[in-house]
Write a structure and sequence with these properties.
Length: 470
C-alpha cells in the first residue's frame, strides 16, 4: 500500500490523499486550496491527479476545502463512484454549484480587466455544468454500514460530529502485497463534543493500524461552549449599547446555523434585546433547508428544543430574516439602527460580507466578530492579527470597528479533543500521519502523540510525499 499526500500537507486546506492498494487507486477527499489568491489559483490548477487513474473517491464531508475540486476531477476523466453520507451529497449539490458560480463571476471580472490590457484570458476552475455532471457520481451511504469497495477493501463511515454529514473514514484492507490485514483510518475533520445541533463525534475505540489525522487546532484549546454563548451575549449587548451593528462573517454550512441557534436561545432567555437579525447569504439559506431535512443527525439538546419551543424551528425565529436578493442585501447598508448581520464568507475572502465590511469597518460603534479559523493571508487573518489598515475591493480602509474573536463556536476538536480521539483507541496506530494543520499546530500535536501517548511513528508529510506501508 502506498499513500501520497496531495493536499492539506503542512497546511490546512486542499485536503486530498491518494491510497494505492491491490491495484486500485482510492482518493480521500478532493478539496480546494484556500488562502492567498495567486497561490491558491496556481495550486488548484497544478496539483490535481489524472481523474482517469482514480477508481473511487471517498468524501469525508462537504466543506469546500475537502470537496471543492470534485468537478475538476470529473472534468479530468474521473468516472468512478464518490462515496459519502447522504447529507454530504445533499450539501455538495448546493455548495459546489455556489462555488462554480463564484468562480465564473470572478473570472468574468478578472477577464474584463485582462482584455483591456490584451492579456491572455482565464477560464474558471470549473463551471456549473461541470458540477451538474459531477453529481451523477455521488453515492450516499449510511453511518456504520460496511460497504465493499473492491476485493480486499471495505469502507465504513462513522459520524465525526464536525458538521452535518461529516464522517471518519475507515478502510479495512487485506493487502495482497504484504499479506497483512490492516485498518486505515482517515479522521476527516474531528468534531467537538458537547456543542449543539449535531451529535458528538463517535469514538473509534477499536483503533487503527494506519492513521491519517487532522491537526487544525493541535496547539490550542477552545473555551467551553457555554462560555462562548455568554461571550456572544456580551458582544451583542455592548454593540447595541454603542448604537452599532454586529457583523459576523460565517461559513454558510455549520457556523451560520450554530450562531442562529445560539442567538435564538439568548433571545428566548431575554439575554439580548429585540433587534433585527439578518442572514445575508443565499447559500446559507439553501443549506439551512438541508439541515431541516436531516433531523436524524441532531443531538439530544436540539431535539428537546424542538419539542419545547413554540416556534418549532431551531434555525429561525421572529427577529430573524433570511435575505435572498441583491437588492435586499444592499438595503442593509442603509440601516441606521443596531442589528446583527451574518454573512459569508467566513474568511472574508469574497461574498456579501465584504460589502457590509466596507460600509461599516470605519465606524467605532460597530463590531466585527470572527468565529472560525482564518487561513494565512486572508482578510480574516489580518483582522485577527489586529492590522489597522486593510484593502477591500482595491480600496484602503482604516479599522475603527471593534474586532472580537470567539473560537468556542468552532466545529473542530481542540488539542485535548484531538488527543482524546487517539487516547480512546484500544489498538494504537503503528504509523500516524499528521495533516490539515499549520506547521506549529501539526508539530505540537505530533510531539505530544509520540511523547505522551507513546505512538511510535508519527510524521508530518510534505506536499506530494509518497509513503509505502509495509
Amino acid at each position: 500500500m502506498r499513500i501520497t499526500f496531495q493536499g492539506a500537507a503542512r497546511t490546512v486546506t486542499g485536503s486530498q490523499h491518494l491510497i494505492e492498494v491491490n491495484g486500485k487507486s482510492i482518493l480521500l477527499d478532493c478539496g480546494l486550496f484556500q488562502g492567498k489568491r495567486k497561490e491558491a489559483f496556481e495550486l488548484n490548477r497544478s496539483t490535481l491527479c489524472d481523474g482517469g487513474d482514480i477508481d473511487c473517491l471517498i468524501l469525508s464531508h462537504a466543506h469546500i476545502d475537502h470537496s471543492g475540486r470534485i468537478p475538476c476531477l470529473v472534468r479530468n476523466g474521473f468516472r468512478g463512484d464518490i462515496f459519502c453520507t447522504s447529507a454530504t451529497r445533499d450539501l455538495c449539490a448546493v455548495m459546489l454549484m455556489d462555488s462554480a458560480f463564484i468562480q465564473e463571476k470572478d473570472v468574468e471580472y478578472v477577464n474584463r480587466r485582462r482584455q483591456k490590457k490584451r492579456q491572455r484570458l482565464f477560464e474558471p476552475l470549473y463551471t456549473r455544468e461541470d458540477v451538474a455532471r459531477s453529481m451523477d457520481y455521488f453515492v450516499g451511504l449510511g453511518y456504520n454500514r460496511r460497504h465493499r469497495l473492491f476485493p480486499g477493501v471495505d469502507l465504513t463511515l462513522v459520524d465525526a460530529g464536525h458538521m452535518l454529514g461529516s464522517a471518519h473514514v475507515i478502510l479495512d484492507i487485506d493487502d495482497r502485497d504484504t499479506g497483512r490485514q490492516q485498518r486505515l483510518v482517515f479522521s476527516g475533520d474531528i468534531g467537538r463534543p458537547d456543542i449543539p445541533i449535531i451529535r458528538d463525534p463517535v469514538p473509534l475505540s477499536e483503533g487503527a493500524d494506519i492513521l491519517i489525522m487532522e491537526s487544525t487546532y493541535g496547539d490550542s484549546t477552545h473555551p467551553p461552549y457555554p462560555d462562548s454563548e455568554r461571550e456572544l451575549e456580551r458582544i451583542v449587548n455592548e454593540t447595541v449599547n454603542r448604537g452599532g451593528c454586529l457583523l459576523i462573517p460565517a461559513f454558510a454550512v455549520g457556523r451560520t446555523q450554530q450562531l442562529v441557534y445560539a442567538l435564538h436561545k439568548l433571545h428566548n432567555e431575554g439575554a439580548i434585546p429585540n433587534l433585527p437579525i439578518f442572514v445575508d447569504s443565499p447559500l446559507a439559506t439553501r443549506t439551512t433547508e438541508i439541515f431541516r431535512l436531516h433531523p436524524e443527525v441532531y443531538d439530544a439538546e436540539i431535539r428537546e428544543f424542538l419539542l419545547t419551543d413554540d416556534d418549532k424551528n431551531p434555525f429561525g425565529f421572529g427577529l430573524l430574516q433570511y435575505t435572498q436578493t441583491v437588492e435586499q442585501s444592499k438595503a442593509l447598508n442603509s440601516l441606521k439602527v443596531p442589528a446583527i448581520i451574518i454573512s459569508a464568507s467566513g474568511m472574508l475572502e469574497g461574498g456579501r460580507i465584504l460589502h457590509h465590511l466596507r460600509n461599516r469597518i470605519g465606524d467605532a460603534r460597530n463590531t466585527i466578530l470572527l468565529t472560525s479559523w482564518q487561513a494565512p493571508n486572508t482578510l480574516g487573518r489580518k483582522l485577527v492579527e489586529q492590522e489597522k489598515d486593510i484593502r477591500i475591493f482595491g480600496e484602503d480602509f482604516h479599522v475603527n470597528a471593534r474586532i472580537e474573536v470567539l473560537t468556542g463556536f468552532s466545529g473542530h476538536a481542540d488539542r485535548e479533543g484531538l488527543l482524546d480521539f487517539v487516547r480512546v483507541m484500544a489498538k494504537k496506530p503503528r504509523r500516524t500521519f499528521i495533516v490539515h494543520g499549520e506547521d506549529e499546530a501539526a508539530t505540537s500535536l505530533a510531539q505530544t502523540l509520540h511523547q505522551e501517548l507513546g505512538l511510535k511513528e508519527v510524521s508530518i508529510p510534505t506536499p506530494q510525499q509518497s509513503v509505502t506501508i509495509d
